[in-house]
Design brief:
By secondary structure, this protein is an alpha+beta fold. It has a domain of 84 residues: Immunoglobulins (Immunoglobulin-like), CATH 2.60.40. The protein is 17% helix and 30% strand. The protein has two helices and seven strands; from the N terminus they run H-H-E-E-E-E-E-E-E. The strands form two sheets. A four-stranded antiparallel β-sheet has the order 4-3-6-7. Strand 6 and strand 7 form a beta hairpin. The radius of gyration is 31 Å and the shape is rod-shaped.
Length: 141
């Protein structure tokens, strides 16, 4: 009885060791958080041609299958196979804008960030009192 128990324990250990050697154990999948990977800048840059920057920084050992950048729910950029840091600087419309970045890791984790940017108003035209009309001649006699 004792010998049979020892044989069973040794057989179980041998099977487990073989499974581990063949890669039978699940690899450790890191949990990735939205704020660690997707970064939306604060500024909008109303005066220039550039908008906010979307930075994508996947941690070591994590590959993003795809990243989608959307302005007002419309996709403007799609990146695939992102293994290292990348950035996108889309141009925003002048009205209130919803900028979102959505990504998915190769193991199926979905990441998303959203930011709303206020409308850019044109500076008011200089309107003051009108200059007085010129009431004089050109020096004729």
């Amino acid at each position: 009885m004792r010998a049979a128990l020892v044989v069973l324990v040794l057989a179980g250990l041998a099977a487990g060791t073989t499974a581990l050697a063949q890669g039978g154990a699940d690899p450790i999948v890191p949990v990735v958080r939205d704020g660690d990977v997707l970064h939306l800048s604060d500024g909008r840059g109303c005066g220039g041609a550039y908008g906010p920057t979307v930075r994508i920084t996947p941690p070591a050992g994590v590959e993003l299958g795809w990243v989608s950048v959307r302005i007002n729910r419309r996709e403007v950029v799609r990146l695939t196979g992102v293994e290292s840091a990348a950035s996108v600087t889309p141009r925003l419309p002048r009205d209130r804008t919803r900028l979102s970045a959505v990504a998915e890791t190769l193991d199926g984790q979905r990441l998303a960030r959203v930011r709303y940017y206020p409308a850019c108003h044109r500076p008011p035209s200089p309107s003051g009192p009108a200059p007085p009309p010129i009431v004089g001649g050109g020096g004729e006699a």
